[in-house]
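ok, trying the design again with the full structure, not the truncated one.
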């Protein structure tokens, strides 16, 4: 293997901003922020928007979007202007 071309593989804390859930894992992600973890050590911090604690699939709070009536909704919104001139 070539020397000095591989990114640094280290322990990183990922923090979900929407649920304030954090977990420690190994990653090559580059970060500028750090956080003190439960073991007292300081680790790089990567802030994320969605994790297993906030994603609808894992939480069971899925939003069901009705696909029926889309054409009716469109026609109601744009009316006669959308039917062609």
């Amino acid at each position: 293997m070539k020397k000095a071309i591989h990114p640094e593989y280290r322990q990183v804390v990922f923090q979900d901003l929407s649920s304030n859930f954090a977990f420690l894992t190994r990653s090559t992600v580059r970060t500028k922020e750090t956080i003190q973890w439960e073991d007292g050590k300081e680790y790089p911090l990567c802030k994320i928007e969605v994790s297993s604690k906030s994603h609808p699939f894992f939480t069971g709070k899925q939003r069901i979007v009705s696909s029926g009536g889309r054409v009716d909704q469109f026609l109601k919104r744009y009316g006669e202007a959308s039917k062609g001139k």
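Keeping the full-length input from now on. The longest strand covers residues 10-16.
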